[in-house]
Every structure is written in C-alpha cells, then in structure tokens.
Amino acid sequence: MSEAKAPEESIAEQLNLKDGDYVQEFGYDDDVDADLRERIEAAIGSELFDEEAQEVVDAVVLWWRDGDGDLVDELVDVQTTLDDGGVVWLLTPKAGREDHVSPADVQDAASTAGLHVTSAARVSSDWSVSRLAPKRNF
Fold it and tell me: How far apart are CA 128 and CA 49, in angstroms?
C-alpha cells in the first residue's frame, strides 16, 4: 500500500486547482518548498501572484511559521482578495521541524478569522498543508 500520493496525482487534484485559476502567495521566504511552488504554477498555467497583487483570486497559498506574527490577523488579511468560494491553503512546517505551528493553533486561528479547516493534503516533505474555507451561514 502506498503511503504517499504519487506526485502525478497532481497538485491540481490534491489542491483542487485548475488551469487558469488565480492563486496569490503570502509568506514567501527562502525556506519554502520550491518544487511545490513550481507544481502549483504548472497546474494553474501561470505564476503565483505576490502579496502586493489586488486581483480577485481563486485560492491563497499562505506559508506560515511560528514567530511570523499573528496568524488570525494574517488569515483575515489574505481573505481580502479571495473570491467567493475560494480557499486558503495554509502551509506550516511539519511537526518536529523548526518553527512548527500546532494543529490546535491553526484550528483556533482559522475559527477566529471566519474560516474552518476542511482537509489536509500531503504535498511536501517539510510542510503540512491545511485547506481553510470560509464558514457558511445557513
């Protein structure tokens, strides 16, 4: 039984991205997973928008480390350009890695920011990724 999904199960399938999607990236630094970034860009057929972009986007990729500041504030801020139905893919260093963020902290911050954790994906050897979607009021 295979433990990890084959890379060709495509980042597009794992992160529900498609060619033509607009994706904005926050928290870029020299420690990000360059291979993962390239796979995302290949899936959407363009480069990721940087933090300064004001375009409405289909998804946000947020690299977050313990010590980066207030996660709640950042999650609120990254939603300003997110289209209805868009999601935030929060990447944090995996357990045991420097600057790891606990899942409980992610859950608490997401809830306070009006989001909820809906799933996780195995897309990087060094980074955990959580899918955060806006809470729906029924």
Answer: 21
SS3 state at 57? strand
Domain extents in the chain: 7-134
pLDDT digits (tens, 9 = 90+) for 82-111: 999 999 999 999 999 999 999 999 999 999
| Beta pairing class for 57-63 and 82-93 | parallel
Max Cα–Cα distance, the chain, nearest Å: 44
Question: Around 42, how many Cα atoms within 13 Å sit in the side-chain half-sphere?
Answer: 11
Homologous superfamily of 7-134: Vaccinia Virus protein VP39 (3.40.50.150)
3: pLDDT strictly greater than 80: no
Answer for the pair 121, 131: CB distance below 8 angstroms, yes or no: yes
Return all residues near 52 (Cβ < 8 A) that are at least 6 apart: none
HSE-CB at 28 with a 13 A cutoff on CA atoms is: 12
